[in-house]
């Protein structure tokens, strides 16, 4: 990590003395959330400007109003980072609506929280250095009370679009959706929903990196591996998003399996427990792996509802994936590409090839790093108005 990246991470981290202040920020109910408009900022906590580090960004945590899977108002946390230097223009400063990758299920993993900023800061730094304003979502239930609705199409897509709304005050402000991994899923979902959910936001493009777009393709590659915590997160995400279905989903698992699912609700990906081997056949009541239950009534309708690729995005999309990705298989993007192309979407597609590393999970990140060289010029072409 470069000194600049460490600087941002340090600035956006809160010392122990501020624990109560942060707890109040995230946990105190927002009395006006039901009457707030989508994308309205309902609470903010400025973090100051790290001028001493020579970076020159104003950063603040925010709470804003979004809409959950059941069309109810919800409070979502996130953060905004704005370069102090004037945008050279012409036109308003472009906004990057940033969707972070998987960090876990616990509030302490949120991108705007103390731990989460360590992971998200390096990812947004190239965007800030390009002069863009970055506004990031924590998604539903990360940071704010309630369970995280991991890989939920509506909640994730809406949370990202409403994050964009917090920053795009001028209707002419160009907005680019940006995400990798879980963030790629959210960016893809938001790209599909933008025309109907946030038609007033000028979304000019969407970068979708390594998206786990189809739940049916998510489980098998991760089952029986040390990356299986993502399978637990996906099941917990459905339980959190659909409490009316929770009992039927939980009925698939025996008591020890339920204990593991409940424990995973409090994990971050940096926790050692999140790297333990997961064999879903050891968790289910009938001893069959979770893939064997994909057509069960408890799961089939929900996996179908949370599949991306059924609606053509109304804006250009840059879809990218590393061929050797061992966390989100490249077939996810290839399948999504075929689906979007069949609907007439404007998709630029790129695959990256690297030597395979002999450590589980380490073949996922290189695709994210490689994409910047292509995606940044692509974004510049979208937002250029001269």
Q: From the helix content, strand content and strand pairing, which structural class follows?
A: alpha/beta
- How many helices? The count is 11
Portion of residues in beta strands equals 15-25%
So what's the CATH class of the largest domain? Alpha Beta
Biggest sheet character:
9 strands, mixed
Question: What is the general shape?
Answer: globular
Lateral arrangement of strands in the main beta sheet: 1-2-3-5-4-6-7-8-9
Distance between the termini: 35 Å
Evaluate the radius of gyration. 20 Å
Quick one: how many beta strands? 9
Keyphrases for this structure?
34% helix, 11 helices, 386 residues, 434 Repressor (Amino-terminal Domain), Rossmann fold, disordered N terminus, alpha/beta
Describe what you observe in this structure.
- The protein has 2 domains: 3-214 and 317-383, 3-Layer(aba) Sandwich (Rossmann fold), CATH 3.40.50; 221-304, Orthogonal Bundle (434 Repressor (Amino-terminal Domain)).
- A 9-stranded mixed sheet has the order 1-2-3-5-4-6-7-8-9, sandwiched between helices.
- The chain contains 11 helices and 9 strands.
- The protein is an alpha/beta fold and 386 residues long.
- Helix 10 links the parallel strand 8 (317-322) and strand 9 (347-352).
């Amino acid at each position: 990590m470069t000194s600049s990246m460490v600087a941002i991470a340090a600035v956006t981290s809160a010392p122990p003395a501020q624990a109560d202040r942060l707890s109040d920020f995230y946990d105190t109910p927002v009395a006006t959330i039901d009457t707030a408009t989508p994308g309205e900022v309902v609470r903010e906590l400025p973090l100051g400007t790290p001028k001493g580090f020579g970076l020159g960004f104003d950063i603040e945590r925010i709470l804003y109003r979004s809409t959950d899977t059941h069309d109810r108002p919800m409070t979502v946390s996130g953060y905004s980072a704005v370069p102090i230097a004037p945008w050279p223009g012409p036109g308003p400063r472009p906004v990057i609506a940033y969707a972070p990758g998987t960090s876990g299920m616990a509030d302490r993993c949120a991108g705007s929280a103390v731990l989460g900023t360590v992971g998200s800061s390096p990812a947004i730094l190239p965007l800030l250095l390009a002069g863009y304003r970055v506004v990031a979502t924590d998604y539903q239930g990360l940071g704010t009370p309630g369970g995280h609705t991991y890989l939920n199409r509506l909640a994730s897509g809406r949370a990202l679009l409403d994050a964009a709304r917090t920053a795009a005050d001028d209707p002419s402000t160009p907005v680019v959706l940006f995400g990798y991994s879980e963030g790629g899923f959210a960016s893809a979902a938001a790209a599909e929903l933008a025309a109907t959910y946030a038609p007033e936001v000028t979304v000019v493009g969407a970068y979708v990196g390594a998206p786990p777009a189809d739940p049916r393709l998510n489980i098998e590659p991760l089952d029986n591996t040390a990356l299986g915590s993502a399978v637990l997160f996906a099941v917990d995400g459905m339980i959190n998003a659909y409490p009316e279905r929770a009992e039927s989903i939980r009925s698939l698992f025996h008591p020890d399996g339920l204990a593991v699912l409940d424990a995973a609700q409090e994990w971050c990906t940096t926790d050692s427990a999140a790297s333990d081997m997961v064999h879903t056949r050891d968790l289910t009541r009938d001893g069959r792996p979770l893939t064997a239950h994909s057509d069960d009534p408890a799961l089939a309708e929900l996996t179908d509802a949370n599949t991306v690729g059924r609606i053509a995005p109304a804006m250009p999309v840059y879809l990218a994936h590393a061929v050797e990705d061992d966390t989100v298989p490249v077939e996810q993007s290839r399948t999504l590409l075929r689906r979007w192309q069949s609907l007439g979407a404007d998709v630029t597609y790129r695959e990256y090839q690297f030597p395979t590393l002999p450590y589980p999970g380490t073949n996922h990140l290189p695709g994210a790093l490689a994409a910047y060289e292509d995606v940044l010029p692509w974004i510049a072409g979208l937002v250029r108005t001269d």
